[in-house]
Amino acid sequence: GDSVTQMEGPVTLSEEAFLTINCTYTATGYPSLFWYVQYPGEGLQLLLKATKADDKGSNKGFEATYRKETTSFHLEKGSVQVSDSAVYFCALSKINKFYFGSGTKLNVKP
Amino acid sequence: GAGVSQSPSNKVTEKGKDVELRCDPISGHTALYWYRQSLGQGLEFLIYFQGNSAPDKSGLPSDRFSAERTGGSVSTLTIQRTQQEDSAVYLCASSLGLGGYGANVLTFGAGSRLTVL
């Protein structure tokens, strides 16, 4: 069945470090892909999305490219800030169904 | 409304009591979802509504859990005879419910934190 796998956390980085959080998916057809972020004590917010192969989603300095050949949607940011500390969820959507990864906690230290 | 509204934001109850959690989705959103997030865990899918119908109830953990949606808007998740393992944050989300392969985007509420003593 359709599913999403993302890297285990927590990920701990120093401020201004480069971030990669890996996400791979299994799905038939043409899913849309998403990254959601959950800041401490808050609900999930959409961070970015991509709807077809080779699309790049971007927001707040974060980027992810929809790679159909490797079934991946890795999240990257060139220089993280303390305020980026949160839990990041990779997700796919297909015909009104959503599948979420288990979440990756990011801790950014000053 | 402007966002997805959930109530109560916090609920503490005693084991064996029934609880109702409410979700008011974004106006015009036909699809509504309930998820459960236990402490430090990912999202567990519970149920999905398209309009007032629930095409997918596969995630409801037991027959103590039920949900309904009326008028294609507000939804209520009911947990009967609560158990301590029901303690979690219950998240509601809504989307336009475009169907097909359109890029539906889920908008989440802030959640209802349930604590069963």
Quick recap:
The complex is a heterodimer of chains A (110) and B (117). By secondary structure, chain A is mainly β.
Give your account of this protein's structure:
The complex is a heterodimer of chains A (110) and B (117). Chain A is mostly beta strands. Chain A has strands at residues 3-6, 11-14, 19-21, 23-26, 32-38, 44-50, 56-59, 62-65, 75-77, 86-94, 97-100, 104-109. In chain A, strands 2, 5, 6, 10, 11 and 12 form a six-stranded mixed sheet that branches. In chain A, strands 3-9-8-7 form a four-stranded antiparallel sheet, with no helix packed on it. A two-stranded antiparallel ribbon of chain A has the order 1-4. In chain A, a hairpin with a 2-residue loop joins strand 7 (56-59) and strand 8 (62-65). Chain B has 117 residues and is mainly beta. Chain B has strands at 5-7, 10-13, 19-24, 31-37, 43-50, 53-56, 65-69, 75-79, 88-95, 107-108, 112-116. The mean pLDDT of chain B is 90. Chain B is globular and about 40 Å long. The interface between A and B is medium-sized, with 25 and 28 residues.
Summed over residues and divided by their number, the pLDDT of chain A gives a mean of: 94
Task: Outline the biggest β-sheet of chain A.
Answer: 6 strands, mixed
Largest interface: A-B, 25 and 28 residues
Pick out the low-confidence regions of chain B: none
Q: Work out the helicity level of chain A.
A: under 10%
Quaternary organisation: heterodimer
Note the run of SSEs of chain A as H and E: EEEEEEEEEEEE
Helix-residue proportion of chain B: under 10%
Gyration radius over CA of chain A: 13 Å
Shape of chain A: globular
Round the Cα radius of gyration of chain B to an integer and report it. Answer: 14 Å
Structural class of chain A: mainly beta
What is the overall pLDDT average of chain B? 90
Provide the β-strand percentage band of chain A.
Answer: over 45%
Strand content of chain B: over 45%
Strands of chain A, total number: 12
Care to count the β-strands of chain B? Answer: 11
User: How does the overall form of chain B come out from the CA principal axes?
Assistant: globular
Instruction: Determine the structural class of chain B based on helices, strands and strand pairing.
Output: mainly beta
Distance between the termini of chain B: 33 Å
